[in-house]
Design goal:
This protein is of the alpha+beta class. It is built from 28 helices and 17 strands. The two termini are 50 Å apart.
Length: 770
């Protein structure tokens, strides 16, 4: 990657305009045809977007998320969108962003990544056409399009070339401003807190090392950049420190503080998936749901726990021809300045393969951070990014130096190698009884590869080069538009996600909003359980502004998971209860305040043991709705004489909730030592909610005698209680909840979630926040 004569301003403008125009063509299914990015992009991230916009519209900066899994920290959840600039800006200006608006944020971020790639290539002296090809592949190559549903992974992927560009600029001339910008870019990538960002940081670290090693005077190069480097590192740490600390805190008491190798490597990339880099629709999943027969499908044996979007690696015929032919067979990526790209391509391929190679287990055990992530196949994003850079660099080498010469027999061997790859794909199809179905895909791949080989060869020969480059870029756009964007992997009608897009048009959603509002006006805050209504309903509570016991999120509080039986998914009408919430008719369901139970099947099928305790359901659309009037109020005042000692860890682990009158008694840990008080059956006092936001609850307590204000919201580090303005640490009440000691008299009591308070941040750093 030598710096050579850089492109003129006109060339740069033309290259950027070309990528922008290609972006319009590639994104046509979403921009014009009205399709939407499906699955997680809607079920999780559209719901999160509507949640964020709703809170911001109410003047609430939601560091706590009470709407799913009983309540959880938003700041510590990397997937909350709370620190995603594009979505945050949209949520700030639109209180009810549509699904298409959410898609637009992702598509614009993809464009930014492509443009940054072009600028990086031009800075490195690439031919403008080479920079354009790299930008196209960066935008939609491989997982960047196949896994477009994984919104924040795509966001990190798109931001990596921005960081690469910022670092390249800062390294060339390390001024204070450039160092600050580079540090801020690195820090913001870290804030992503996902595996794509993690792998991107590894790649960026290798780039920095390579720049230093390539310097003519390494000592002078490093000496001139020590202070700017310290500035950049300081800025990066300042940007990323609090979000990373919040996530580490959450992870330590979550259901996934780290992974054992067997689970962490479970979703590895099957080696056969690399055939899709050459044959785009080998397994028949781009245009048909029922026709897919590759890894992860019921037709594939033995079953492999991967989604078909993970398997799809196609980044275009031209890039794969450049990498395999010019890079590998002609050796450009094996020696000289291309070796760095080749090494990173190999590293990310090995990482993605995960358990299919012995190398990944060594990485898992020795490389810090790897055990914090599952799904090694996420490295396919990094593989796509390196494919983009490799394709750009290799095309530039071909344009500058021509094709590396080889003897005639080598040319024959290269052709044989290409035929062998197609033959391997055909063999896989035949072995699975799908050869006839795969023949069109194989023929298409052969034609596309032949066109790409011809175009690259003509570029190397210098014949009609401008025309050939136009054809090559045009072919790549058509190729990617056909096999990367607008397929069933990333573009679907929005109708199945209506509850997350236009909930007021969905009768069940509209009824739930009205009914819960009416109940809460009489009884105070309540929760509901939504189960078995399909994927779009799992996080619907975030859109509707309701509080649910379940949701859709891989990261949850461990104690809550065990006690309640919550799982990542709740789309099926099947329920595994927990150690404390042993059914819908259980004391702990009442303590959670489960007022409405909304099921996709009769309760007799979901919880037969509890069914006799409930009356006939209300039927609205696909739901059976059951009322639970036994739900305990969200806030209570309990006299000291009614407080009972207990061990929360024991009860969470083994169950066995004692039989108490939960409206008059409570479990308190640690129970303060005090003089024994006689039993008093008179009313100990009263409590009412004055104001309630996501991370703050103001109470008015009138206590006839000393006691506890019990709040049935999740206990979590960072929550503080103020009694008449004086702070105290909340007690652990009724296993998962909180309480404040309140003396006799009338008092103002506030429960506040303050994760950014210096005392709390220091406790996290010191490791004593539990």
């Amino acid at each position: 990657m030598n710096l050579s004569v850089r492109s003129s301003g006109r060339d740069a403008a033309l290259a950027l305009a070309t990528v922008a125009a290609a972006w319009v063509v590639l994104m046509w299914p979403w921009l014009v045809d009205g399709l939407t990015i499906p699955w997680d992009a809607k079920i999780h991230f559209q719901a999160m977007l509507r949640w964020l916009s709703g809170h911001l519209a109410n003047g609430d900066w939601p560091l706590w998320m009470p709407e799913t899994f009983g309540g959880r920290p938003a700041l510590g959840d990397p997937q909350s969108l709370l620190l995603s600039p594009g979505f945050l800006a949209l949520a700030a200006f639109d209180s009810e962003p549509s699904a298409r608006a959410g898609d637009a944020v992702v598509l614009v971020e993809v464009l930014i990544g492509g443009l940054a790639t072009v600028l990086f290539g031009l800075r490195r002296g690439w031919h403008p056409a080479a920079a354009v090809l790299a930008g196209l592949v960066m935008m939609v190559g491989g997982s960047a399009s196949a896994r477009l549903q994984h919104t924040l992974l795509v966001q990190s992927h798109a931001f990596i070339p921005v960081v690469l560009l910022a670092l390249d600029i800062a390294l060339d001339r390390p001024t204070l401003l450039r160092s600050v910008c580079a540090g801020a870019a690195v820090g913001w990538l870290v804030v992503g807190r996902d595996q794509v960002a993690y792998l991107g940081l590894i790649g960026l670290g290798v780039f920095l090392a390579a720049r230093a090693l390539a310097a003519a005077d390494r000592r002078a190069f490093l000496r001139e950049r020590v202070v700017p480097g310290v500035v950049a590192a300081t800025v990066a740490a300042a940007v990323a420190a609090i979000p990373v600390l919040a996530t580490l805190e959450f992870a330590q008491i979550s259901n996934r503080p780290a992974f054992e190798f067997a689970f962490g490597a479970k979703q590895s990339l099957p080696p056969v998936a690399f055939l899709t880099a050459l044959v785009p629709d080998l397994f028949g999943g781009l245009a048909s749901d029922l026709g897919y027969w590759g890894p992860g499908s019921m037709a594939w044996t033995p079953h492999v726990p991967v989604d078909r979007t993970v398997v799809q690696l196609y980044a275009g015929a031209a890039p794969v021809v450049l990498v395999l032919w010019i890079g590998v067979l002609r050796g450009r990526l094996l020696t000289g300045p291309g070796r760095l790209i080749g090494i990173l391509l190999l590293f990310f391929a090995i990482y993605a393969l995960g358990r299919y190679t012995p190398v990944f287990e060594l990485l898992f055990d020795t490389l810090p951070g790897v055990d914090k992530f599952r799904r090694p196949a996420d490295a396919t994003f990094a593989l796509a990014a390196m494919t983009a850079l490799a394709a750009g660099w290799l095309l530039d080498r071909v344009l500058r130096d021509g094709l590396p010469p080889v003897p005639a027999w080598r040319g024959v061997a290269e052709v044989a190698g290409g035929v062998a790859l197609l033959a391997a794909a055909a063999w896989v199809a035949e072995a699975n009884g799908r050869l006839n179905e795969a023949l069109p895909a194989l023929a298409t791949a052969l034609v596309l590869a032949g066109l790409a080989v011809a175009a690259v060869a003509l570029c190397g020969a210098g014949r009609h080069r401008p025309l050939v480059l136009v054809v090559l870029i045009g072919l790549s756009v058509v190729d990617l538009r056909t096999f990367a964007t607008g397929t069933l992997l990333n573009a679907r009608p929005v109708a199945p996600f209506a509850v997350l897009d236009e909930p007021e048009e969905v009768p069940l959603a509209a009824w739930l909003e009205r009914e819960v509002t009416a109940i809460e006006a009489r009884e105070g805050p309540v929760r509901l359980e939504v189960l078995g209504l399909g994927g779009a309903w799992q996080n619907a509570a975030l859109v509707l502004g309701l509080e649910s016991t379940l949701g859709y999120n891989p990261l949850r509080l461990e104690d809550y998971d065990v006690a309640v039986g919550a799982r990542q998914n709740s789309h099926l009408a099947a329920r595994q209860f927990g150690t404390l919430m042993t059914g819908y008719r259980s004391d702990f369901a009442d303590l959670l305040g489960v007022r409405l139970i909304v099921l996709g099947a009769p309760i007799e099928q979901v919880d037969p043991a509890s069914a006799p305790a409930f009356g006939p359901p209300r039927r609205i659309g696909p739901a059976w709705i059951y009322d639970n009037p036994r739900a305990v109020p969200r806030v209570l005042f309990i006299g000291r004489e009614a407080a009972r000692p207990y061990d929360p860890e024991v009860l969470v682990a083994s169950g066995g909730l004692p039989a108490l009158d939960w409206r008059r008694e409570a479990l308190i840990d640690p129970l303060p030592q005090h003089v024994a008080m006689p039993q008093d059956r008179s009313q100990p006092g009263s409590v009412r909610i004055l104001d309630r936001r996501s991370d703050r609850i103001d109470l008015d307590v009138s206590a006839a005698r000393d006691g506890f204000a019990v709040l049935h919201d999740m206990a979590y580090p960072g929550w503080v209680v103020y009694v008449d303005g004086m702070p105290q640490k909340p007690f652990r009440a009724n296993v998962l909840f909180m309480a404040a000691a309140v003396p006799a008299g009338r008092h103002a009591v506030t429960f506040a979630y303050e994760p950014l308070a210096p005392r709390h941040l220091w406790s996290v750093i010191a490791g004593d926040h539990h």
